[in-house]
Amino acid sequence: MINIEDSFSFHEGDTIVVGCSAGPDSMALVDMLLKIREKYKLLLIIAHVNHNVRVESCEEALYVKEYCEKNNLIFETMIIEEYGDDNFENEARAIRYSFFDSLVQKYNANYLMTAHHGDDLIETILMRIVRGSNLNGYSGFKKIVDMDDYLIVRPLIDYTKAELEQYNIDNNVKYYIDKSNSSDKYTRNRYRKYILPFLKAEDRNVHYKFLKFSNMLEDTSKYINKERDKALKRTLSNDSIVISKFKNEDEYIQREILYYLLSDFYQDDLILVGDKHIDLIINLMYSKKANSFINLPNHVVANKCYNMLELKRDTEEITSYEIEFDDYVTLPNNHTIEKVPELEGNSNNVCRLNSQDIVLPLVVRTRKIGDRIMVKGLDGSRKVKDIFIDKKVRLSDRDSWPIVVDSKGKIVWIPGIIKSKYDKKTVESYDIMLKYN
Predict the structure, then answer these.
(1) Radius of gyration over alpha carbons of the chain, in Å?
(2) pTM of the model
(3) Given this model, what pLDDT does residue 13 score?
(4) End-to-end CA distance of the chain, in Å?
């Protein structure tokens, strides 16, 4: 029998964003949380992503919306309008977690919960073994992941899909089946259809063995990470690798350093990168070329310049953006701008505005040719281009840097860089407070 309280310690007043696809796993998780909502006075935000690739997608989104209305749950949704040229599964996952993260920030949530279960863990571990990874990668995914200001929690990791389906039958929980899950087109589906049945035939509780294996690798990884962290201090300078120092490290530690640095770009799940990518980066560092680069999944670039190697997000794909700002926005550079009820300090990461001085709504966009800003404390205006040069903003960052303008195009703030004359002192009158994170 499934009891979610045995899997995780809830606290009174917890705020939880729950990823919900309308499938059997996530609907079971939502139902379990509903059953203990009053006991712990939980605030539940149900987050649904419409992947927009099946005719049933809209019907499923509507079902989750109506379910939330019926049960007095907060419902948040987004539609993926288009995909790039990357692997669909990888790109969809990146978009999902970016959306979830924005909701965590919006509601100041303690936790993001997903319905990953024991069968998912088996599939992930097997895929990593075939693909190649490090010990941390081979351990699959963790039950709890610390994201600094919140936790990702997978409370169903101890249970199988069959147990969750039985839970739905016993509790009369309606759900939808994604027909694409039976297609051999997707890698995970092939493991699910052909490998898992064999393993379960050998031992119906095999998921416990994989969970033990995962925990054992995680403990071993923690020990190795201590040595890796020492090596990081020896080899890094301003977040870039000093190649000559890197070459002095043990080959195993070299690979651990690279996996660690790549984890910044691929969240807690290194499914996108494997041994072949690590080999490419190492070969790049040992090559005789003074300046060279390689492309990695999801627009990440490893760039070698003489004795330094930098891993960075390739912003060339992001030519421009223009986003109407309401209360919160997640930017392509992985930063956020949010409207807050109160502000401390007076750095360039905060801005106070009076709505009488500007024309709402505000818009966050990239720079345009000829952009000028009326700088606070100076007479006249300055070119944004010159400000970027003075502030030593890297050339690769300038085209994607956020600029906040009003509806008439007046630049009111360049977050993290400089303020305009429209920014108010704490003793002046203002009714809009913005923070750049």
Answers:
(1) 24
(2) 0.63
(3) 96
(4) 43
